[in-house]
Design goal:
Structural class: mainly alpha
Number of strands: 0
Oligomer: single chain
Radius of gyration: 21 Å
Strand content: under 5%
Order of helices and strands: HHHHHHHHH
Shape: elongated
Distance between the termini: 68 Å
């Protein structure tokens, strides 16, 4: 026997139980399943009112997932594609900027680990980090190499 189809609210809660979603993203997913008479915007408003859907939590979740591998421009572009704009985006940008150089060094260390010996290798490392969305100043810092731990003997 086949289970009855899920209501729009049940689908929304199922999506939100798996991971955080932006309002825009959840609206797109629910619109595919909406039938005549269903009000997706009213459901999204209800979810936000009950704090089941939160742009702030979504933004924090996305940053947590992506920041360790990607640079500021890539993370910010993804936030914008999910509908995070305005003052919230500016605040998130400033938070990301403070750690970008350290994150670039860590990504470089995991991928390469040694300072490039010739121009071709240096160019390859630079292209890799730039494609990941790191700024040119963070890339230059990373290409210098990870600082050695002086506490190790």
């Amino acid at each position: 026997m086949r289970a009855p189809p899920l209501s729009l609210k049940a689908r929304a809660l199922r999506f939100l139980s798996m991971r955080e979603h932006s309002r825009l993203e959840l609206g797109r997913k629910l619109a595919r399943h909406a039938e005549e008479g269903d009000d997706v915007e009213a459901l999204l408003d209800f979810l936000e009112k009950n704090n089941w859907l939160s742009q702030e939590r979504f933004a924090e979740s996305l940053i947590h997932r992506k920041a360790s591998r990607y640079g500021n421009s890539r993370v910010v572009a993804e936030l914008q594609s999910h509908g995070v704009n305005g003052e919230a985006l500016a605040e998130l940008k400033s938070g990301l900027a403070s750690s970008e150089k350290a994150r670039a060094v860590e990504v470089w260390r995991r991928k390469f680990g040694t300072v490039a010996q010739d121009a071709a290798a240096r160019s390859k490392q630079m292209r890799f980090l730039m494609a990941r969305g790191f700024s040119s100043s963070a890339v230059r810092e990373a290409l210098k190499g990870a600082p050695e731990d002086e506490d190790e003997f």
